[in-house]
Amino acid sequence: MAFIGMRSIQTLPLLFHPAVLFSRRKKIMYFSVKASQSQTATQEKQRPIAISPHFDKQIIDKISKDYEAIIGIETHVQLSTLTKAFCSCPYNYGSSPNTNICPICMGLPGALPVLNSKVIESAVKLGLALNCSLSFNSKFDRKQYFYPDLPKGYQISQFDVPIASGGYIDLDLPIEYGGGHRRFGITRVHMEEDAGKLLHSESGSYSQVDLNRAGVPLLEIVSEPDMRTGIEAAEYAAELQRLVRYLGVSNGNMQEGSLRCDVNVSVRPIGQSQFGTKVEIKNLNSFSSVSRAIDFEISRQVLLHSQGQSDQIVQETRLWEEGAQKTITMRKKEGLSDYRYFPEPDLPEVILTKEYVDNIHDSLPELPEMKRRRYESMGLSMQDVLFLANDISVAEFFDATIARGAEVKLAANWIMGDIAAYMKNEKLTINDIKLTPQELAELIASIKGGTISGKIGKEILFELLAKGGTVKGLIKEKDLVQIADPAEIEKMVEKVLVENPKQLEQYRGGKTKLQGFFAGQVMKASKGKANPGLLNKILLEKLNAKS
Amino acid sequence: MLSTLQPPRCSLSRFTLHLPSKPSFFHSKQTPLSTPHSTLTDQLPTSNSSQPLQSQILSIRHSLLSRQITATQLADSYLNRLRALEHHLKSFLHVSETVRSDAREIDDKILRNEELGPLAGVLVAVKDNICTAGMPSTAGSRILDGYRPPFDATAVKKIKELGGIVIGKTNLDEFGMGSSTEASAFQVTANPWDLSRVPGGSSGGSASAVSARQCVVSLGSDTGGSVRQPASFCGVVGLKPTYGRVSRFGLMAYASSLDVIGCLSTTVADAGILLHAISGHDTLDATSSKREVSDFTSQISAVDSFESKPLKGLRIGLIRETLDKGVDGQVNSAIRAAASHLEELGCSINEVSLPSFSLGLPAYYILASSESSSNLARYDGVRYGNQATADELTGLYENSRATGFGSEVKMRILMGTYALSAGYYDAYYKRAQQVRTIIQKSFRAALDENDILISPAAPSAAYKIGEKVDDPLAMYAGDIMTVNVNLAGLPALVLPCGFVQDGSSNLPVGLQMIGAAFDEGKLLKVGHIFEQTLADCRFVPPLLADDIVG
């Protein structure tokens, strides 16, 4: 039960069928992952995807031992501010085209940007959470290029002075991938605005521009090239998602494009210090596609290296094709594009005061890494830790439950087991269920104190999940108090023995397995309320009494 | 030091001004006029001696409140003159169709005894790169031909809220890029003082319209002198406020870090009243200042209240580099005469040197071009304005921009793109920014020693149409007096101080006064006293005296 429940919460779809699996010198395992049908706690759904083995696994296995992959990720996080970065338009995903626009985000002549201060607040929060040093004096720059989804002909971004830089992120790999703690470097975090979207006609003869998304605030997070496998990269992205959700700065939803990853992959022979040629992969809209696209790309590059064709690895942008499960060339880089960055003259410099930063620092919530270390110190297994800390709402529910005196391990088991299963079946989040942490703590206490049996506890649980109410109320209403009076149980046992003479004879003839049958009958007679320990003790005494 | 200079009045009093016998639109105690509008001047309450007698805005207010004239009558008289002169001048790209109905609303308010805004009934012309809702706003460019913005620029909105009536949109060099208004995509505006000459630019239409009394006051924009130089050429007052004093929201950006909206008027008092109306922080412009706006009109006092040395103790710095070679001799004389006049008013005059002055011009053209190459990227034919037909995207961009922009604009976009390109950025853009910092520092130092700096507004008076059109460098050199002020972000007031004679033409010369940041009040005070004590020197173009107007 707990295991299935965990699937439903894990943001990274679990590995069922490792297609390519090879060990590495540095004892890092990596896998090509097949998509599962699991679903994240919030909204993301992974489409089931058939795996397509493009390379001979055994050959890859063999040669890949000699190569090392270098992976860096650029992530764009769309901030969930009420209004856009530089105007007062709201942004709602899925609105009809060009309904959330104004002269400013349309780039009409004479319109000027005015910075939404929430963007700075979000950037400072994330910068602090990523252990970065903040630039107390940064600025905006214009990144210039022509494209129909870019209304002003430039994107307001940050170039040489990002608001945060030089940080790191800590994460724990799932047990299924060998577990282990990782720390990946963060190069920089900067603020910028999103562009609109092009809608291409089915005939392909024309395109339309939707500017709803133009001017929506983004944080771009650039990692150090510290990842070595698809799993590490996917876990990095998953941890970023966790972080922005914990901080409340973004919904982190990959399907809606609120969290977008562009991955850079290169491969080099082990022992070589120089990096290989870097390839960028786009169109990764789930963690599993991050992982699979990288592993595909590593295999492709390793194969070319091993065949002496490393010159065919060129600096280019490749597209991950979800259907075909492979990367294809999107555009080759013809030299560096010149964006002619210069300081944005329409916006004043971004000055942070120590007081402002300190206030934000003091208001940060407990972050995923701190939570995991705290849960670990409470004696929970890494599997439990990862499950509970994965989703801030689940973690808060757990914390509230144990704060009301529930035993840590029992609370974890209930949440990861029956509660998670219920949420999965009903497609609910933990915020949607009617059960409160207060009542879960009460339920655990009632079972532990012997007021009700575990079995009755489960029944009550489902009642509480679906309809709410209190444990005490339900026990009273349904007369579910456990029968712990030996005399009463003895009466029921005797009645059952009398009613089943044939089975009693067989038992006494040596078929002791029938004890379970009798226990079941007695429990049934008690409507499940008999204390199981007491029942078994009395039943055994009676069964063996006259033998 | 300046005692060797020729006496101030000589150069000014050489001209016997021909006072118009037909409608005249300046006001003076000495020249009572018979037209309905002009007679209003005589009705000004004498009890309030602090009121400037020459302010057109104040006299309009007085005559409306005393019901000597209706706003509709006033609007009609301006519209009539506008139309009568327009085929000579071509100051306007568009004349509002709602002027009379706007005026009727003011009259209705007067009938209902409602409160009147300080600009009630005042006819304001607006440079066509400033957005006006429901009226075309083209910035003088084909790429915006027919474009009507859905919003008013903040400055326009404020003017309307205070009762001002937008009479029309004035001609300009395309996107403000030019110094003669010849770079307009639509028409060439003439100088009311000599129709064969340019009105200056880029706010040439706004200056010409005020000079010819086609409107009461006008808005211009000043990126490198575009309000001040045409004010000088057309003999009107031009005020470039401190960067950030007036919201830029709705001003079509040319060079964002230099652009300001400015005021053109026939009197310093009117420039002050208009500036007060449009100043202040705007939540829609992050570069607009939160500084409090002082009441500039409080600096304006009546002539008869002046002491014998009303500017006693004021330190004036005459910028030496602005009277070097390259400056017209008669302009030089007019400015030195103006300096002597200031000395007579009690100022102390010191020559100051700004060695970095000549660096301003190249730095300005690099920075302004760089910013313009970015600001004009939005004119891509995708969302509004000129859209060329094309088979694919690049063609759409290329053709829309190639047919939409004029050659001066294209040249500046190319220069700016070059200056910002990888490998050239440090040598051009970054270096120009360093020069800008040096210029800011040298101005600050000079303004620590002096209350106000003075210079000519332009090295020459108005030149002939076509004279410099094929020589962009000569045209750019004409901006030498003004660009430094934009680089430093300082306020400057240009007011007519004399004339030069060129052939048969008397052409006005403007004196530029530069003040410390946000010290417009001091400029207005000094400018007002200068203006009011400049006896027998009236800056009404002869065009208005001719029968043309009749």
TrEMBL record, chain A:
Pfam families assigned: GatB_N (PF02934), GatB_Yqey (PF02637)
One CC-aspect GO term: chloroplast
Enzyme class, first EC level, given as a word: ligase
Biological process according to GO: glutaminyl-tRNAGln biosynthesis via transamidation; mitochondrial translation
Source species, domain of life: Eukaryota
MF terms (GO), sorted A to Z: ATP binding; glutaminyl-tRNA synthase (glutamine-hydrolyzing) activity
Catalytic activity: L-glutamyl-tRNA(Gln) + L-glutamine + ATP + H2O = L-glutaminyl-tRNA(Gln) + L-glutamate + ADP + phosphate + H(+); L-aspartyl-tRNA(Asn) + L-glutamine + ATP + H2O = L-asparaginyl-tRNA(Asn) + L-glutamate + ADP + phosphate + 2 H(+)
Assembly and oligomerization: Subunit of the heterotrimeric GatCAB amidotransferase (AdT) complex, composed of A, B and C subunits.
UniProt protein name: Glutamyl-tRNA(Gln) amidotransferase subunit B, chloroplastic/mitochondrial
Source organism of this protein record: Cucumis melo (Muskmelon)
From TrEMBL, chain B:
Subcellular location: Mitochondrion; Plastid, Chloroplast stroma
Active site location: 127 (charge relay system), 202 (charge relay system), 226 (acyl-ester intermediate)
GO biological process, one term: glutaminyl-tRNAGln biosynthesis via transamidation
Catalytic function, reaction form: L-glutamyl-tRNA(Gln) + L-glutamine + ATP + H2O = L-glutaminyl-tRNA(Gln) + L-glutamate + ADP + phosphate + H(+)
Keywords: ATP-binding, Chloroplast, Ligase, Mitochondrion, Nucleotide-binding, Plastid, Protein biosynthesis
Enzyme class: ligase
Coiled coil: none
The protein's role, per its UniProt record: Allows the formation of correctly charged Gln-tRNA(Gln) through the transamidation of misacylated Glu-tRNA(Gln) in chloroplasts and mitochondria. The reaction takes place in the presence of glutamine and ATP through an activated gamma-phospho-Glu-tRNA(Gln).
Annotated protein name in UniProt: Glutamyl-tRNA(Gln) amidotransferase subunit A, chloroplastic/mitochondrial
Species whose genome carries this gene: Cucumis melo (Muskmelon)
Gene: LOC103491372
